[in-house]
Amino acid sequence: MSQPQTMSQKILSSRAGLPSVEPGAIVEAAVDMVLANDVSAPMMIRGFKEAGGERVFDPARVVLVADHFTPNKDVASALIVNEMSEFASSQRLEHRFEGGRSGVAHVLLAEQGLTLPGELIIGGDSRALTYGALGAFATGVGATDLAAALVTGRTWFKVPETIRVQLSGELGPWVGGMDIALALLNTLGPEGAHYQSLEFHGPLVEALSMEARQTISNLMVESGAKAALFPVDQATTDYLAGKAKRSWHSVAPDPEAAYSRTIELDVSGLEPLAARPHLPHDVAPAHSAGYEPVNQVFIGSCAAARLEDLRVAAKVLEGRTVHPRVRLMVIPATPALALAALREGLTETFVAAGGMVGPPSCGPCAGGHLGVLAPGEVAVATANRNYRGRMGHPGSRIYLAGPAVAAASAILGRLASPTEVVS
Amino acid sequence: MISGRAWVFGDHISSDAIVPARYLNQRNPRSWAGVVLADLRPEFAEQLGFGDFIVAGRNFGCGSSREQAPMAIKTAGVGAVIAHSFSRMFYRNAFNLGLPVFACPEAASLVHDGDRLRLDLFSGAIQDLDQESSFQAEAVDPYLAEMVSAGGLIKKVRKQITGH
Lengths: 423, 164
Ligand code: SF4
Prior knowledge:
The complex is a heterodimer. By secondary structure, chain A is α/β, with parallel strands linked by helices. Chain A has helices spanning 7-16, 41-50, 75-90, 105-111, 143-152, 177-188, 210-219, 234-240, 307-317, 335-343, 346-352, 403-412; strands spanning 26-30, 33-37, 62-65, 95-97, 120-123, 137-140, 154-158, 161-168, 196-201, 227-229, 261-266, 273-275, 283-285, 296-299, 327-330, 356-357, 378-381, 397-401. In chain A, strands 13-12-18-17-14-15-16 form a 7-stranded mixed sheet, with helices on both faces. In chain A, strands 4-3-2-5-6 form a 5-stranded parallel sheet. In chain A, strands 10-9-8-11 form a 4-stranded parallel sheet, covered by helices on one side. In chain A, α6 (177-188) runs parallel beside α7 (210-219), α9 packs across α11 and α9 runs parallel beside α12 (403-412). Chain A is globular and about 60 Å long. The relative contact order of chain A is 0.14. By secondary structure, chain B is of the alpha/beta class. Chain B has 8 helices and 7 strands; from the N terminus they run βαααβαβαβαβββαα. Chain B has a 7-stranded mixed sheet with strand order 4-3-2-1-5-6-7. Chain B is globular, with a radius of gyration of 15 Å. The two termini of chain B are 26 Å apart. Iron/sulfur cluster binds next to loops of chain A.
């Protein structure tokens, strides 16, 4: 009889070929998927060659996504995308996303059924945690890790302890995944989940959409989490129906599994929130988080630019106009979302309100491209990092919030709760 | 055993501060070494002696997963980083690249900027020659210690598959 294990331990032990693994142990495990983007790919490709790599371990389990600087913003970015493209061709990679087929990796991969429950996934980007929403142990690593995994199909892991997150209560109007995520970051603080994995439990979980789950897993890396796993339930199975590119097996924690601690969040009475500059953990109700004039509103990124989020934003913006001072940028995270937004008339709502709709990409999220902030400017973004200088000049200021708050702020030209706009 | 002077930094030194994003599209690792930590201490990259130490507070290397951060520190010639604690991704990247890093809260709070240090890379014993004091860093997992002595993950994998 093996030791009772959490979801993370189960996935790591199965991929390491061991009956069980203990927190703190270092294991070598087989990976199910390796992701690189246009920031991590060049170093990964160089490392692969230095390591003596000739063929990748499995061309169906490596995915390259050009998302940060797409469409190419300058010659340097174009060269990077060229290099990725050549590598993908010469290695006959089955999953590569460029140009009009690309989008933000962490939204795209889940939507394409490339990241599945019970899998072990590494990505050369800290947001790889997002796939935990599907019940995968997914984590961010550096380019050298990617390079080694391309050669061997394996990588090393220190088995993390698991924090149990107990979610309960009922969500009020205009409150969603982003508000839950910000409330959790506020509770955990910047180092609250260091070296640890989070596992979500409690009666609220089954009521949460796959979109909300992805938003929550996505933001947990801000508290240092190594992975953030939701249970695999009916919603997961429904979401993957017709999408999954491989067969998959469900995974569940053992009832007696040991957790390092439990944190609880009752969402009843939770208001739409915002994180103030310059820390994602500095959270307050949106209507009182700040009163400064807003210059830019960004509805996009891998945190909250999925269909549910776009619908919420459109509902607030429908028949209203963006404040004259505000640049509203809406960037559906993937081509499929862009198409859905078009068909549902959401795009029309955004443009009619005075917003810009951009090509699926990271957009201004990392401050490199498409909507960079000037000194002194203030932005509201449905993104995940608001550290100093993240979206442009170090003298700019960023508030993070869900799509309802972002849309309301675009209309009023200051940070606002949706109830100030919609009755 | 390595020795050098201590360069002391504070808490939550992010990978953004180690290599600012504006240099990320450079390709030559030497270009990152030339700007390492320059936004915090402009004289650091220039005056750093080969084998000198970075001594820092909590959560060193926090923020993005960029491997350019430990790469810049290693290429600049830093002998080891001693900190109260490290962010997960920086810690991992450092071992993969073969950059020695040691968690030692005591040294992190007691070593002064400019002190001459001596460090035993195998045992993690740290001596402060100026203060005549000694500290013991937290033990490094043998798996990771082996990776550093193999010269990092790429060299280790190369040896596995090519035999040299
Ligand atoms: S949308 Fe933002 S957080 Fe997500 S991958 Fe792109 S830059 Fe990173």
